[in-house]
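Example 3.2
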Amino acid sequence: MNDKEQKTGHIFGPVPSRRLGRSLGIDLIPHKTCTYDCLYCQVGHTTDKTAVRKNWVGVDEIIAELKTKLSSPVRDKASEMPDGRQGRPVSNGTSKPDCITLSGSGEPTLFSGCGELIDKIKKITNIPVAVITNGSMLFDENVRRELLNADIVVPSLDAGDEETFKIINRPAPEITFDKMLQGLIDFRKEFKGKYWLEVFFIADLNDSDEQVEKIAACIEKIRPDKVQLNTVTRPPADDVKPVKKERLAEIAKRLGKNAEVIADFRNNNKKDDFELKSGDIIEMLKRRPCSLDDIAAGLKTPINEAAKHIESLIKSGKIEPVRQGGRVYYKVKC
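Structure, written as tokens:
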């Protein structure tokens, strides 16, 4: 990546999302600044655990970067050579992800400009805006109000009581289980968009019948549109184990007809309209480890082309492979 391409690093992807398709991410928070320090976090341990909201970057700066990303030139069939080789990029279209997502390597609602950012994104594009949050700040009426203009909000609930909440999520002192749960309930009453609740299950911690019953009782109070069950598939912060697929299916039945086990993202083989750069892969891996399939799907590129870039990045010492659950993932070397 040359100096011009270094940018500020707030926009990343598109990355493959099991829920949102090809998601163009916006990272608003310094690395691992979060209200939680979850055992299962794929980004690693929290280095700044806080519930204090700040404005780390100007909203207009992010919007300018987003406009540049969305207006990137694409290639069309008319620019292909007779042998199939690509000619020069043409600017007769733009490359659209399925969704623009506030997420990244920390808790996005800690960014105090969320509401202004969402409103300004909606003014420049009709691409749906999603917010992936741990839900811990929804007790704050200001946070709830700022998220009302989003199209999709996906908060988390990983426990059915205070004790398990503290074990799994390790929250900042200001955040109690009851406060967090009430925030999830209150936001449902106010938010008119799609409200999907993710529940992350860890073997021997929150997958017992007792915990499932407690979580189910909480879900009945929250009343989300969907309940999405997840478990450990990427290298976690701590040595925790996944819940088996069969057990997740059993739990899904207990949690109701709107509960589903999140399936692995599959490449839908749409036409590639993003030019692959090694820098794009680095930006993806800064936020979370990805498999070869993830990278190829997220950047809409043939898998052999993605593999060439990965091999080069490994040789240069910029990324490294790690094995988790029988699959190989790649992450940026610290």
